[in-house]
Fold this sequence. Notes:
This protein is mostly beta strands. It has a single domain, classed as Mutm (Fpg) Protein, Chain: A, domain 2 (Sandwich). It has helices at 117-121, 125-133, and strands at 23-31, 36-45, 47-48, 56-57, 62-68, 75-84, 90-99, 109-116, 138-143, 148-158, 161-170. The strands form two sheets. A six-stranded mixed beta sheet has the order 3-5-1-11-10-9, with no helix packed on it. The chain has a five-stranded antiparallel beta sheet with strand order 4-2-6-7-8. A hairpin with a 4-residue loop joins strand 9 (138-143) and strand 10 (148-158).
Amino acid sequence: MASIQVQKATSSDNKEVKQPQNGAQVVVVNQTKSVMTLGRQINWSGTPAYPGYPDTIWPNQKVIFNHLADGDFGSTAAVIYNGTNLTGQPCAWVLAWDAPAESERKPNKVFVTCGSKSQIDNLENNEIRHFLSESSKHSFTFDPAAQVSAQAIINEKLPNKAYVGAGFGAGHDNKLL
C-alpha cells in the first residue's frame, strides 16, 4: 500500500501559512419548549450546503448545517427562526455569521438577537449586516419584554472552516455557553 504524505503550506521564510476558510459549520440548539421554523435566510456571501438550512428545529434538538464559502469573500449569512416563548407569544431568533476567507486579516464575527416576531420581522437585512459588522466572536442577548435569549460563538477549531455554535432560549434557560 502506498503511503501518502501531507505537507503543510509554508511561506518563503518557512512559517506555516494558514489556508483560507472554505465555509462555516453551524450548530444551533433549540432550548425553548416550542418548535422553531425557518422564517428567513440571508446569504450575503456563500451558499448553504445540501440539503440547506433545517426547516424545523424541535425543542431540545441540536441541528448542524454547513455554509460554503464564496471564493475570496468567505461565508457570510444569517438565519431567522420563529417559535414561541414560555407564554406562547410568537417570537423570533436571529443568528448571523461572517467567516471571511482570509480570517487572519479580517476576524470571524457572529451576531444574535431575538424578540417578538413582529419586532424581528421589521429588522431589515442591511441592519442585521451592520450589527454583524460591529460584533465580535461572541454575542449574547436577552429580550426582557419577550423573555427570550440567544447566544453564539464563532472560532476556527475546524481545519479551514469556521465553527459557529448558537443556542436559542425562552426565559433564562439558554445555557449553551
